[in-house]
Write a structure and sequence with these properties.
heterodimer, A: ABC transporter involved in vitamin B12 uptake, BtuC, 12 helices, 2 strands, B: 374 residues, alpha/beta, 17% strand
């Protein structure tokens, strides 16, 4: 059993690696293709200003999707991330308004994000409670807690230097810089480091991973902690972009983030996917939303299109798995 | 397979684009509902079109003691206490009480907007004994039994801000009607961008009831009073800060110089639209008019980027509620009356059977926005 499992895992990884590239290429093609089609209908869409605004306004989704992709690749899921970002944004903004040093108000969401997510990861890994249950519980706690504590009052009067998202580096807005850097670092780490590969092994086949010397429990805790870190970074971009922090959780954010991961080629069954894919998918989704306005399509279609995209990706993933499995057996 | 997916996606989008370009030509602004509208007069009087007077539908207290002209003790039970908005209504009540001289009013209520807590507070004050109860209901139906209990004990009941079912109170002070908001929004926009300006709307969703009513009234009023103004489109932004910002930015990038104004239909969409205009460096070139609370708009109003924030004045609302209560106790506001005197606010009209209309909406601007904290 074990030898076969390891061989199977190895094969899945090999085929998988080739496939990552193709999924990313497909997404990159879609991003460019859509821009060309929409630009043909309404050339204003291609204005540098619009393309840069598009990335700027949605970078936090791509950043959050990096951690989400890791969690899903490890064979888990997290539906508390939207609520967590809402809570962290409120805490960060409150600290800034209360006069805490700006660095502190930027660091606290990172630390708290790691703590909350690592705790959830520990419950998932060591108590063996399915992640969807644990994170559903956390979602309710965070959502309810936030409203109870703030009473729905918004945070206003944020200090000027709190607005990290307003900064830029070499003329590139900070959210975009962070998105690109985070994606690149995470992608390289996941592909080449032992602990990065352990995420794929754990999600692909936890038993096989254990036999190969990977500690699946520790890996899951690590993955959730990292996810919390990226959620913290996403919070910084999200909270510092506007002058007001809504002290309610952003509606449906967790689903948008999960959608970016899944459309990005991260297999909902675990073990497969890259963060380059999820970042490209986040850009594609943002591009679709904006494109619909540019070509006068009713926004009622946004959700339908997004849903179609998810279904198409998941069905394609399952079909490929089945084909590969059939090939494996015939050998 | 991949190529097929890509081409079919592209084809779908192109097909949708052509399908939709026809739909936009329809007469109704996106996001407006189909209910009948009643645009106000174009001039400052804002007179309503004559409508069939609705008979009084409020409740009446059982054998209230005659306290006409005598000192009365009132309790005000808002949705919750400790927030800027209800601090402001409470201030208005104190202002009115001071002016009248024969009214004592205390504000007391739950610290969270919870209906069961609110009922307990009202019940306690019925037991303790007061002459009148002012309330802003957390739930129009659930609050009715305890208010009816108060009426049955001879206590006067007047609502403000958030109504109960009509038969559970005598009068309700209505802060704003849909057609009043529609007029204030369109008039403010016309003043800022001119009678031939083009504008777009950022709303929550096309089917949110209040926003759909406001947009329908705005369209009806624009057709009557600002016929040359040009509606470009309406976009949805949920009640989501960042999505509102992105959608407003998309509109700015899509229309360029053509876009002269943005309407924010929610307290989320308005500051986010103002932020989008600020970030695009178009303050003074693209006007933002919308419904919002003063605190969220202060940075933009003080920076001169936003000139008109449309809402009502909660201080006036509390003030009016107190005057209405005094008039009820004094027998000056009886079922069937068409107006009531409310101190510095002048004569307020009775609408909708048993509601008192506060008057036209209040426009927050640079000169007054800092006086409010909610």
């Amino acid at each position: 059993m074990s030898a076969a499992a390891i061989a199977g895992a190895a094969r899945a990884q090999n085929g998988g690696l080739r496939r990552f590239a193709s999924q990313e290429a497909l997404l990159a093609l879609a991003v460019i293709g859509l821009a060309v089609v929409v630009g043909f209908i309404n050339p204003r869409f291609l204005a540098t200003r619009n393309l840069s605004d598009l990335l700027l306004g949605n970078a936090y989704i791509a950043i959050a999707a990096i951690g989400m992709s890791m969690v899903i690749i490890s064979g888990n899921i997290d539906i508390s991330v939207g609520a967590l970002i809402g809570v962290l944004a409120t805490i960060s903004g409150s600290l800034a308004v209360a006069g805490a040093p700006i660095l502190v108000s930027w660091l606290v969401p990172l630390v708290l994000g790691v703590a909350v997510m690592a705790a959830q990861g520990a419950v998932v890994a060591y108590l063996r409670i399915p992640a969807i249950v644990v994170t559903l519980g956390m979602l309710s706690i965070l959502k309810g807690g936030l409203i109870s504590v703030t009473g729905g009052k918004w945070i206003t009067d944020l200090p000027q230097n709190f607005h990290l998202a307003d900064l830029s580096f070499l003329n590139v807005p900070m959210p975009v810089v962070i998105m690109v850097l985070a994606t690149a670092l995470a992608a390289v780490w996941m592909r080449y480091s032992a602990s990065g590969r352990a995420i794929y092994a754990t999600g692909g086949n936890a038993e096989a991973a254990r036999l190969c010397g990977v500690n699946p429990q520790r890996t899951v805790v690590m993955v959730f902690a990292l996810h919390g870190f990226f959620a913290g970074i996403a919070t910084l971009v999200y909270a510092t972009q506007l002058r007001v922090i809504q002290s309610t959780t952003p509606p449906g954010l967790e689903l948008t983030v999960i959608t970016a991961s899944v459309v990005g080629g991260v297999s909902i069954l675990g073990g497969v996917g890259t963060v380059v894919g999820s970042t490209l998918a986040a850009i594609l989704i943002a591009e679709i939303t904006s494109a619909l306005v540019f070509i006068n399509v009713s926004p009622y279609w946004t959700d339908a299109l997004r849903g179609g995209l998810i279904l198409a990706t998941v069905i394609a993933d399952i079909l490929r798995r089945q084909r590969r499995a059939a090939r494996g057996w015939s050998k | 397979m991949k190529a097929r997916l890509l081409t079919s996606t592209a084809a779908t989008i192109v097909a949708l684009a052509f399908a939709a370009s026809g739909a936009n030509a329809a007469g109704k602004w996106d996001g407006a509902d189909d209910l009948p509208t009643s645009p106000l007069a174009c001039d400052a009087s804002g007179a309503a079109a004559p409508e069939a007077a609705k008979p009084y539908d409020g409740g009446q207290p059982t054998n209230p003691p005659d306290k006409a002209g005598k000192e009365i003790t009132l309790v005000d039970v808002p949705k919750l206490i400790g927030i800027g908005y209800f601090n402001a209504t409470s201030k208005g009540m104190q202002d009115a009480a001071k002016e009248l001289g024969n009214v004592k009013v205390t504000t007391d209520g739950p610290t969270e907007a919870k209906i069961d807590e609110q009922i307990k507070f009202i019940d306690n004050y019925i037991t303790r004994g007061v002459d009148g109860i002012l309330f802003a209901a957390n739930d129009p139906v659930a609050i009715a039994p305890v208010l009816k209990k108060a009426l049955s004990k001879g206590i006067h009941v007047v609502g403000y801000d958030a109504n109960s079912t009509p038969d559970a109170r005598e009068w309700f002070v209505n802060q704003a009607q849909f057609n009043g908001i529609g007029k204030a929004m369109m008039d403010s926009m016309a003043k800022e961008i001119g009678e031939d300006g083009s504008f777009a709307i950022v709303t929550s969703t096309f089917t949110t009831p209040n926003q759909a009513r406001w947009i329908a009234e705005m369209q009806a009023y624009a057709a009557k009073c600002h016929p040359k103004m040009n509606w470009l489109e309406t976009v949805e932004a949920q009640e989501d800060n960042n999505l509102s910002f992105n959608q407003a930015t998309t509109l700015i990038n899509k229309y360029g110089d053509k876009l002269k104004g943005l309407f924010g239909m929610t307290s989320v969409a308005t500051p986010a639209s103002a932020e989008a205009v600020t970030k695009a460096g178009l303050c003074g070139k693209v006007a933002v008019v919308g419904l919002a609370t003063p605190n969220a708009m202060k940075p933009y109003v003080n920076a001169g980027c936003v000139k008109s924030v449309v809402l009502w004045n909660p201080v006036d609302l509390g003030y009016a509620a107190t005057y209405v209560m005094r008039a009820v106790v004094d027998g000056k506001l009886k079922p069937g009356a068409t107006s009531v005197e409310a101190g510095k606010l002048g004569k307020l009209n009775v609408v909708n059977g048993s509601e008192i209309l506060l008057g036209p909406p209040f426009i927050y601007n640079k000169s007054n926005v800092d006086q409010f904290d909610f």
